[in-house]
Amino acid sequence: MNPRQLEQMARQMQKEMMRIQEELANTTVEGTAGSYVTVTMNGHREIKSIKLAPEVVDPDDVETLQDLIVAAIADASKKAQELAEQRLGPLAGGMKLPGF
After folding, report:
1. What kind and span of H or E run contains 6?
2. Cys bridge to 84: 11, 54, 76, 100, which one at CB 3.0-4.6 A?
3. What's the rounded mean pLDDT across residues 28-50?
């Protein structure tokens, strides 16, 4: 493969990577902690919303609510990670990408 072909392939991969990054920014996943907390996050792991079931808001038990929020964020983050790996996997050739 000559240098010109390599450069063309690199540009094509970069263009595809940018397209996938934009797609990840516009794709959301939901993480949950039971039916009490739902966290919506995009493919870049940016939290877009947190929904709480009214019955979970108990001023006498704030710790449980905090634990549920953390669990829902962790669940959403895992799903966003899986989404990114799925979309970027073919470009990465099976390599683990840091930050994804």
Report:
1. helix 3-26
2. 100
3. 97
Do 72 and 5 contact (CB within 8 A), yes or no? Answer: no
Q: Please name the helix (run of DSSP H) or strand (run of DSSP E) that holds residue 4, with its range, or none.
A: helix 3-26
Residue 25 included in any domain: yes
Half-sphere exposure of 98 (CA within 13 A, CB side): 0
Please say whether the beta carbons of 46 and 58 come within 8 A: no
- pLDDT category at 70 given cuts 50, 70, 90 is very high
Question: Which structural domain, as residue segments, surrounds residue 65?
Answer: 3-92
The pair of structure tokens assigned to 89 is 């996997």
Domain CATH code at residue 65 = 3.30.1310.10
